[in-house]
Hints:
With 312 residues, the chain is an alpha/beta fold. Helix content is 27%, strand content 18%.
Amino acid sequence: MKSLLFSRFLLLLPWVLIVIIVLDIDSSRAPLPALAPRGGGGGGSGSGGARPAAARAPAPRRPEAALPTIYAITPTYSRPVQKAELTRLANTFRQVARLHWILVEDAAARSDLVSRFVAGAGLPCTHLHVPTPRRYKRPGLPRATEQRNAGLAWLRQRHQHLPPPQPGVLFFADDDNTYSLELFQEMRTTRKVSVWPVGLVGGRRYERPVVENGKVVGWYTGWRADRPFAIDMAGFAVSLQVILSHPKAVFKRRGSQPGMQESDFLKQITTVEELEPKANNCTKVLVWHTRTEKVNLANEPKYHLDTVSIEV
């Protein structure tokens, strides 16, 4: 008798389990939401529920293509620290939107080192070369004159057949300087000629234009404050339109005295009264004249002794 009851229990057990599982599934199902009426009919309050709020559009950002291009003219010459200097400068420029680098070698031909560097720099770059005549390489004479003029000539030739307006800003970026990224934001709004302080120059911690009521009225400098524009090469930027509208404005060799290149150039395109102070009315240093220490190669062998040739 017991075995008969046990066998019937085993036959019914699977069916009982199936029924329990089905009931559990049905009870766990959530009711389907009511379908909202389609499109256009009846937008009043009696149509059943408030409309969802429209998503707020993000604040419009100025597209990168609308930014004026910054053209940076950099004279460079062969020396042990050349590649190191250019690498540091390229690492800064790579973070600046809409920047075109005009790199000008002081050489009769493009060097392999700089050519390879430019190819791998990952920057819009124009690689030029022009040698400085030997008679101008004496100590005390202005440097990089021919290279800066070559950059200006390329810029004018590139834009001479393009219709205005051509928004852009030019500045002279020597390869031994250090630049804050904030400086590029400041100079990009240059209308004609903008100016700012420069650190570690002129035998002082900094030099700067003195500003009163938004206008440049003098110069805080450690050397020849009587210069028309007592400013370092790293301390100003010029609108592209000004460069194009003054085609004869160049850096002069004849009659130019040491330390007067900036003044000789700026006199051709602007006046002190027209200068535009940047960097919080010329009270912030955003560029430093950090000249690299002369390297000690006293132990470098006269002839190459290593089994491999390494570019430094």
